Amino acid sequence: QVQLVESGGGLVQPGGSLRLSCTASGRTSIAYAMGWFRQAPGKDREFVGYMSRLGVSIYYADSVKGRFTISRDDAKNTVYLQMNSLKPEDTAVYYCAAAAKLMYALRSIQNGNEYNYWGQGTQVTVSS
Question: Is residue 38 pLDDT above 70, yes or no?
């Protein structure tokens, strides 16, 4: 079992930045691919970004490309989501997720059902 805990959410003005962290505990001896998802009120869960084991492959949703950056520090069992130039439409609960299996197809990477473990989420609100 792996437990994921997100932190770093909050209220920020449009154009501002936040950095979310996702720290894993438990069975962290296995390297996991990590994904970030978000869900706004009344909307379906949305893929945000992905980083493979060892950080070899990185993908972003078109809506955040160029503004968000994923990184990982395996020594700290932590994955980060740096969010810059935030917009009101980025307002959502952000979740990190860990996938134990290898995924190559983008549609799998973007599918939350392919991930084994989820954090509890952290609220990000972008508003003036």
Answer: yes
